[in-house]
C-alpha cells in the first residue's frame, strides 16, 4: 500500500535544489519580467526629465497619473498611464502602419482582443460576433472611397452605459429644470457621420447590426421625446445646396457649413425671422488636422472652407477664437440687427468648435462650456448657465446614444437646476 504523499513543511524555495518540488522564489524569467515592468512603468517619468514628451494620438487627453488615494485604482491606473505617456509612441505607431501597408498591403492590427483592430473592414464579418465590450470594436472603420469613420460611432451605441429610456429621462430633466427657472431651453443633437453618410460604410463591419438598430431607435424616439432639434434634414439640404458633403471624409465632424446650419436653426427657434437679413459669403480656406487618422498614428489634413457672416447684411461679424470649451469661451459684441441679443449660455463639444465663429457673429452675448465640465464642476458651470436667459445644449449623437455624458444623470441636472432656481428669470 502506497503511503500518502505529504507536502514539505517548508516553502518550496527553501528545499534543496535537487528536490523535485524545489521552485526558486525568483527565477530568471521572473526577474526579467519584473525589470521590464519597472522600466515600462517608469519610462514616461524618466524620459520626461530629459525633455521627451508623449504625443496625443486620440481625440481626448492622455491618461493622467493615478492618485495614491484611489486605493487599488492606483495600481490598475498605472498601466494605461504608462502606455499612453510613453515617448515616441506616435513614431512607433506610424512606423508599424508604414511597414504593414508598404510590405503587406494592409492596415496594421494593433489592438488587443480577438476581433479588434485599428481599422475595421469587411473581414470582420468572417469572425465570430465579438462580446459587447467597447475595447473589441475597431477604433477606425475604413469605408468606401477612402472614407474613415470613428469606431465610437459603433462601439458606444453597442455598449451603452445608459439605456435610451434613461437618456431620454436625463435630457427631459434638463429641460424641466431650465424652463422651471424661467429660461428658454434648446437641445441640438449633432448626428454622427455614419448617420449622415451610411452609404460610404463598408459592406460589413464589427457591430453593424447592433449599432444600426440603436441608431434607428434613437432617431425614431429621442427628438420627439426631448424636443431636440433634428439636424439631419437641415444638414442634407445644406449639402445639396452646396453640392458637396457636409462632413469630412477623414474627420468625424461636420464642416463649417454644418456649424453654420446649426447656428441658423438655433437663431430661428430663438428669434423667428432673425436670419432673413443675414449675409453669408465664402472667405478663407485653410488646412485642418483631421482627427480620425490620429487614431492610426497618422498626420493628415483636410481643406476647410470658412465663411464671413454679417447678421445685418453689412460687415463681417465673425470671430475665430480657438477653444475646446473646457475653460468657458465667452463671445460678446455690440448688438446689431439680426442678432440674438438675449444672453445665451451653451453647453457644446467639438462640433460647436466649427460653429463658434458664427455664434460670435450672431449672438451678442454667448458663453460656451464643454459637457464634461457640468458634472465635474456643477457649482461653477451652474453659475455660468445662470447668467443666461437662454440655455442651449449641443451634444454628439454617439455620446448621447451610448449614455456616455455624466450630465445625463438626473441628479446632475437637479444640482444645477437648484442654482438656476435661485436666480430665476
Automatic annotation (TrEMBL):
Residues 111-132 are annotated as: Disordered. Keywords: Alginate biosynthesis, Membrane, Periplasm, Signal, Transferase, Transmembrane, Transmembrane helix. Residues 114-127 have a biased composition (Polar residues). GO terms for cellular component: periplasmic space. GO terms for molecular function: transferase activity. The chain crosses the membrane at residues 31-51. Pathway: Glycan biosynthesis; alginate biosynthesis. Residues 140-273 form the AlgX/AlgJ SGNH hydrolase-like domain. It is found in: Periplasm. GO terms for biological process: alginic acid biosynthetic process. This is AlgX/AlgJ SGNH hydrolase-like domain-containing protein. It comes from Saccharopolyspora gloriosae.
Amino acid at each position: 500500500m502506497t503511503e500518502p504523499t505529504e507536502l514539505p513543511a517548508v516553502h518550496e524555495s527553501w528545499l534543496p535544489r535537487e528536490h523535485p518540488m524545489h521552485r526558486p522564489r525568483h527565477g530568471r524569467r521572473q526577474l526579467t519580467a519584473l525589470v521590464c515592468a519597472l522600466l515600462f512603468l517608469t519610462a514616461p517619468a524618466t524620459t520626461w526629465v530629459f525633455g521627451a514628451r508623449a504625443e496625443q494620438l486620440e481625440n481626448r487627453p492622455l491618461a493622467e497619473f493615478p492618485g495614491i488615494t484611489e486605493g487599488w485604482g492606483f495600481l490598475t491606473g498605472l498601466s494605461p498611464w504608462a502606455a499612453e505617456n510613453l515617448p515616441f509612441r506616435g513614431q512607433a505607431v506610424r512606423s508599424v502602419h508604414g511597414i504593414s501597408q508598404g510590405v503587406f498591403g494592409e492596415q496594421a492590427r494593433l489592438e488587443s482582443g480577438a476581433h479588434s483592430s485599428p481599422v475595421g473592414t469587411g473581414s470582420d464579418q468572417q469572425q465570430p460576433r465579438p462580446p459587447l465590450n467597447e475595447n473589441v470594436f475597431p477604433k477606425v472603420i475604413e469605408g468606401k472611397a477612402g472614407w474613415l469613420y470613428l469606431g465610437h460611432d459603433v462601439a458606444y451605441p453597442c455598449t451603452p452605459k445608459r439605456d435610451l429610456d434613461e437618456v431620454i429621462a436625463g435630457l427631459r430633466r434638463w429641460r424641466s429644470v431650465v424652463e422651471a427657472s424661467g429660461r428658454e431651453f434648446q437641445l441640438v443633437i449633432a448626428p454622427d457621420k455614419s448617420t449622415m453618410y451610411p452609404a460610404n460604410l463598408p459592406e460589413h463591419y464589427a457591430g453593424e447590426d447592433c449599432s444600426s438598430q440603436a441608431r434607428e431607435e434613437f432617431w425614431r424616439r429621442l427628438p420627439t421625446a426631448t424636443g431636440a432639434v433634428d439636424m439631419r434634414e437641415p444638414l442634407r439640404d445644406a449639402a445639396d445646396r452646396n453640392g458637396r458633403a457636409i462632413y469630412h471624409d477623414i474627420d468625424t465632424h461636420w464642416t463649417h457649413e454644418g456649424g453654420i446650419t446649426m447656428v441658423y436653426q438655433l437663431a430661428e427657434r430663438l428669434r423667428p425671422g432673425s436670419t432673413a437679413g443675414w449675409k453669408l459669403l465664402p472667405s478663407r480656406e485653410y488646412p485642418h488636422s483631421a482627427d480620425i487618422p490620429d487614431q492610426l498614428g497618422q498626420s493628415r489634413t483636410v481643406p476647410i472652407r470658412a465663411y464671413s457672416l454679417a447678421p445685418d447684411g453689412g460687415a463681417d461679424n465673425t470671430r475665430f477664437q480657438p477653444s475646446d470649451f473646457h475653460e468657458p469661451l465667452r463671445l460678446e459684441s455690440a448688438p446689431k440687427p439680426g442678432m440674438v441679443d438675449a444672453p445665451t449660455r451653451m453647453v457644446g463639444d467639438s462640433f460647436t468648435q466649427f460653429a463658434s465663429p458664427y455664434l460670435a457673429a450672431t449672438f451678442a452675448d454667448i458663453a460656451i462650456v464643454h459637457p464634461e465640465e457640468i458634472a465635474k464642476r456643477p457649482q461653477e458651470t451652474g453659475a455660468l448657465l445662470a447668467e443666461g436667459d437662454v440655455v442651449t445644449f449641443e451634444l454628439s449623437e454617439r455620446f448621447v446614444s451610448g449614455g456616455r455624458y455624466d450630465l445625463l444623470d438626473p441628479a446632475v441636472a437637479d444640482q444645477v437646476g437648484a442654482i438656476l432656481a435661485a436666480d430665476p428669470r
